[in-house]
Amino acid sequence: MSALADPAPDAFRAEIRGKVQAAGSSFYWAMRLLPAERRDAMFAIYAYCREVDDIADSGDAPPAKQAGLARWRDEIAAIYDGAPATPLGRVLAGIVGPYRLQRADFLAIIDGMAMDAERDIRAPAMAELDLYCDRVASAVGRLSVHVFGDDSDAAIRVAHHLGRALQLTNILRDIAEDGARGRLYLPKELLAAHGIRATDPASVLHEPALGRVCEDLARIADKHFDDAATAMRQCARRAMRPAAVMRAVYQELLGRLRAEGWRDLATPVKVPGRVKLLLALRYGLL
Asked: Residue 143 and residue 147: Cα distance in Å, rounded?
């Protein structure tokens, strides 16, 4: 039986594919390199992440968000007990066994979303930020490398470092957008190092030293990108192609953010689709 054979209808899997394709994300370009069954498995993991992220980012009151995340904790338990209740749960139930996906990683993602749901994160300690990155990004990476076909220690290190690099890049890209939601993910240690004591996002966005804080965080992302590349060289090359594309696209994004000089953080910075395609071709065919 294939990894994505029923218990879920083909129509729902097709709906997931359509949503991922419509998003036009870097994730889509990278996952296209996978064989169809592995690609569909990754799309299901993506759909799960979107489900719990949408709960955390909704306009609901914290108790409602926590209740929504609790329902997904119950659904993860049901998936591993062989009795999922939702269409997405049934898709996930079809892949957790064949790809040896760990329940702890699915739950870690919920734990990360709960950090957002409980309160607006503002200037967390570096250790808290690292834990957040592990839960919302590196845990996804750990699920991903299993689906890619390499669950070696080196692949888990790729997940650890690349997940953090991608999430820190997202944080730098989305400072203004997150600020509008009342969130500020820049760590308090870096803010304090540049004389910024405020934690109110609107105030921090107007601090003259903000660019130096951003550059310091970008250097931390650089180190994670480099460590991910080192670990990747110890992995099965074909299995790591999607990860190599994600690394290339996000390093391009970080470079574009740097090129803007951290001056106008409210203006979106993106990697054009044609550039994503070129990077996918370059790093996906190595």
From this structure: 7
> Of how many residues is the chain composed?
286
Q: What sign for the dihedral angle of Cα 255, 258, 259, 265?
A: positive
Q: Which amino acid is at 236?
A: A
Quick one: how far is CA 150 from the chain centroid? 19
Q: Is-contact 138 205, C-beta < 8 A? A: no
Phi, psi of 153 (to 5 degrees): -60, -35
The pLDDT tens digits for 65-80 are 999 999 999 999 999 9
Domain annotation for the chain: domains and CATH numbers: 1-119 (1.10.600.10), 120-286 (1.10.600.10)
Residue 7 identity:
P
Tell whether the torsion through CA atoms of 275, 276, 278 and 283 is positive or negative: positive
Q: Give the predicted TM-score (pTM) of the model.
A: 0.92
pLDDT digits over 91-143, tens only?
999 999 999 999 999 999 999 999 999 989 999 999 999 999 999 999 999 99
3-state secondary structure (DSSP) of residue 212: helix
- Both structure tokens of 234: 């110890």
CA angle 70, 71, 75 (to 5 degrees): 115
Structure tokens at 103: 């329940």
In whole angstroms, what is the distance from residue 265 CA to residue 244 CA?
27
Task: Tell me phi and psi for residue 121, to 5 degrees.
Answer: -70, 130
28's tokens: 């889509």
